[in-house]
Design goal:
alpha+beta, six-stranded mixed sheet
């Protein structure tokens, strides 16, 4: 292949590679680093026996992501307060040709699922992502990871059971989630505690991720009363030069809260049965840097 052809082939598959790496790592910068390393392997390696570029590139990316995830876990870093994945702008484009497949991709990259995936081993996480999000056959995954097919099936079963046991229920329909998010914001901005309480499930949870670098709860808040009063209290304090922008993050509608032109936080809701089941707030400034620039 010529250099231009190599680049074209890689760029064609870059969205899939980034999707695999992000689901594996939950961190945009790390995922981009892994994809860059995959490019170096692709552009500088021996491709004489590569018959299917996408499969080869996904294999390289998955292995690099496993290695990076193992290094992250080995460091044993202590995170201040609850942890949430770095928000990821989702634009599936041609990778999701129909609504059903788009829903699967969106679910596999949701904040709720990625939090659960953090508790899997690197190999379990790789198998889950490749099988559940991208639909690879067990035989292909076994070849990618240099494992026997029976072992891969066992890994997949353990991972799937773990995720299903801990996966919160939520509404996938983005229209319904957007509508309830708008009502949530209106009630909070208006100081309408009673109206907000009507939107919250009795056992709603609020997870705030600041990494100790900005103000956010250092523990998960539970119950409609605690969450409702916290949200009204925070909204009452206000944000200087407040701006609000809707965008799609992690497969669903989310709100980017701005202070002037600078990101202050990201808000996303999990919705089921017409009520808010979980409130996610990301305020760690390190996790907001990858969001698109504000015009």
């Amino acid at each position: 292949m010529t250099t231009d052809t190599l680049t074209d082939v890689f760029e064609e598959h870059r969205p899939v590679l980034l999707g695999v790496a992000y689901r594996m790592l939950g961190r945009v910068a790390d995922a981009e680093d892994v994809v860059q390393d995959a490019w170096l392997r692709w552009s500088g390696g021996d491709r004489s026996e590569v018959r299917e570029p996408r499969g080869y590139l996904v294999r390289v990316t998955a292995r690099l992501a496993i290695d990076r995830l193992r290094r992250i876990k080995a460091r044993g870093e202590t995170y201040v307060g609850p942890w949430l994945p770095e928000p990821y702008v989702t634009d599936f484009g041609d990778t999701a040709p129909d609504a059903a497949e788009r829903a699967v991709l969106a679910d596999s990259v949701s904040l709720a699922v990625l939090v659960v995936l953090e508790s899997l081993s690197p190999l379990e996480r790789a198998v889950f992502v490749l099988r559940e999000a991208f639909g690879y056959p067990y035989a292909d995954i076994a070849a990618m990871l240099d494992r026997g097919e029976a072992a891969v099936r066992q890994l997949a079963g353990r991972a799937r059971g773990h995720v299903e046991e801990r996966r919160p229920r939520y509404e996938v329909d983005p229209v319904r989630r957007r509508e309830l998010t708008e009502r949530f914001l209106a009630a909070a901005a208006g100081g309408d505690l009673a109206g907000l309480m009507k939107l919250l499930a009795p056992d709603v949870r609020l997870v705030g991720d600041s990494g100790g670098k900005s103000r956010a709860p250092l523990r998960v808040l539970e119950s409609a009363d605690h969450v409702g009063r916290f949200v009204i209290g925070v909204a009452g304090k206000g944000v200087p030069d407040l701006g609000v922008r809707f965008l799609e993050l992690n497969g669903g509608p989310a709100v980017l809260v701005l202070s002037g032109r600078e990101p202050d936080s990201v808000l996303q809701l999990d919705v089921a049965d017409g009520r808010v089941q979980a409130v996610y707030i990301i305020r760690n400034p390190d996790k907001l840097r990858s969001l698109p620039a504000v015009p």
